[in-house]
Write a structure and sequence with these properties.
The chain is mostly beta strands. The protein is built from no helices and eleven strands. Strands 2, 4, 5, 6, 9, 10 and 11 form a seven-stranded mixed sheet that branches. A four-stranded antiparallel sheet has the order 1-3-8-7, with no helix packed on it.
Length: 116
């Protein structure tokens, strides 16, 4: 399976970030795929944001839950991440990841800079 993230690149503080993950080579509704969003901030490690399962159920990091939403379009085989009230510390490379049993598949990531 291949994943490709895309997004605006630059977002102003307090605005909403919208990212897309286009999936090929596998269906996002196939059991038991789990589709995660993860980010890596400068100088920090990886931070898990949340996932949407093959069933459509979602789960979020408690620290980001209040301003994050993960959704999908089955017909387009595409995943979405929305994060509102952005802050400069949300600047990061955002990754989409598929987990299928014990296999992980990563996208190349997309850099999002939060700055005025």
């Amino acid at each position: 399976v291949q994943l490709q993230e895309s997004g605006p690149g630059l977002v102003k503080p307090s605005q909403t970030l919208s990212l897309t993950c286009t999936v090929s080579g596998g269906s996002i509704t196939t059991n038991p795929y789990y589709w995660s969003w993860i980010r890596q901030t400068p100088g920090k490690g990886l931070e898990w944001i949340g996932y949407i399962a093959y069933s459509g159920s979602t789960y979020y990091s408690p620290s980001l839950k209040s301003r994050t939403s993960i959704s999908r379009d089955n017909a387009k085989n595409t995943l979405y991440l929305e994060m509102n009230s952005l802050k400069p510390e949300d600047t990061a490379v955002y990754y989409c990841k598929a987990t299928y049993y014990r296999m992980d598949y990563w996208g190349k990531g997309t850099l999002v800079t939060v700055s005025s």
